[in-house]
Design brief:
Blueprint lengths: L29 H13 L27 H8 L2 E4 L6 H10 L3 E7 L17 E10 L4 E6 L2 E6 L1 H6 L15 E5 L7 H17 L6 H16 L6 H27 L4 H27 L10 H15 L1
Antiparallel strand pairs: 1-6, 2-3, 2-6, 3-4, 4-5
Helix pairs in contact: 2-5, 6-9, 7-8, 8-9
Length: 317
């Protein structure tokens, strides 16, 4: 059965250090996490792509869902990724591309993904992106990158994922899909580092002009008061799109700064301070909702806001 990376297996796969359980945020978001592991499998440093994290902003109801720009992937590693048109069975398109050595990134329903056991698996329908390494329709089996690892699913989960129950009378299953044309081998290390430095300067110049953490802090308590009126499960959605995106983004920013140069030590320390604060405030958020005491949240993000100013000042130097 064709696969893009025939040498890897879910049973023996080892995630990249950026997904270590010792990190503050071992998982970030589905799209960036899978690229970390794809680059890990290709033998290329995922730390090099993370300059774009400096551009994260507060969007009014959420922090930017950070995704590596596709042009950065091509400039750094020679990976060309673009949308794949779906006009037939999704499985047919994927098999065609795998046969050409290309990786397909498909938006799927986490309800049918056993690696989300205890979170969404067989509990809640949710949109997430996976990268498919091997697809076996005869045996209803799939090997895929998702979040912080590499996994396998089969049987009823396979059928659910690809909507096998649909008939000709039903609306077709047309998920958003990208496909990546991979280079013949790892990019030259000197090229990767020089390109990462160039992209770092480019993205640093594009960072928000005003402190996004302060913008969030101003409305944070009021948002939480409204959330407290919702079912408690809504807390997880809110926290994921605010505090987790903020914290995970800046922990990765710190890793990028460490990888670039020791000269960025002060900026990396400030980025980690943002990440650490977001993690602690996430626990405070849960307590505030349970106890319905929101006033302490008004200053909870101050250390992160001050750290963002310190990071910006360091980058400005």
């Amino acid at each position: 059965m064709p696969s893009v990376f025939p040498a890897i297996d879910p049973e023996s796969y080892r995630p990249h250090a950026l997904h270590s359980g010792e990190r503050m945020w071992p998982e970030t978001n589905c799209y960036l996490d899978l690229w970390i592991e794809v680059l890990n499998t290709l033998g290329m440093p995922p730390e090099a792509m993370l300059g774009f994290t400096l551009t994260q902003d507060f969007e009014g109801d959420q922090f930017t869902f950070f995704k590596v720009p596709l042009e950065d992937l091509e400039a750094l590693y020679g990976i060309r990724c673009t949308e794949l048109a779906i006009y037939d069975r999704v499985e047919s398109h994927i098999q065609e591309q795998i046969g050409r050595g290309r990786l397909c990134l498909v938006e799927m329903d986490s309800f049918y993904m056993p690696d989300t056991q205890g979170v969404g698996y067989r509990k809640e329908h949710g949109k997430t992106t996976i990268a498919i390494n091997r697809l076996d329709t005869a045996n209803r089996q799939l090997d895929y990158f998702h979040n912080a690892g590499f996994f396998r699913l089969e049987g009823d989960d396979f059928d659910g994922l690809f909507k096998s129950h649909l008939t000709a009378e039903d609306a077709p299953y047309l998920p958003y899909t990208e496909f990546a044309k991979l280079p013949a081998g790892p990019a030259d290390a000197d090229h990767v580092r020089a390109t990462a430095k160039r992209l770092f300067r480019f993205h640093s110049a594009r960072r928000p002009s005003a402190n996004p953490v302060r913008a969030f802090a101003e409305i944070f308590p009021e948002q939480v008061e409204r959330i407290a009126e919702r079912p408690f499960g809504f807390f997880h959605k809110y926290a994921f799109n605010t505090l987790r995106q903020l914290g995970a983004n800046f922990e990765l920013a710190a890793s990028h700064l460490d990888w670039l140069s020791p000269d960025h030590a002060r900026a990396a320390t400030a980025a980690r301070r943002i990440s650490d604060t977001a993690k602690s405030v996430q626990f405070q958020l849960a307590r505030a909702i349970t106890r319905r005491k929101f006033e302490p949240l008004r200053t909870a993000l101050d250390p992160a806001a001050d750290a963002w100013d310190a990071l910006a000042a360091s980058l400005g130097e």
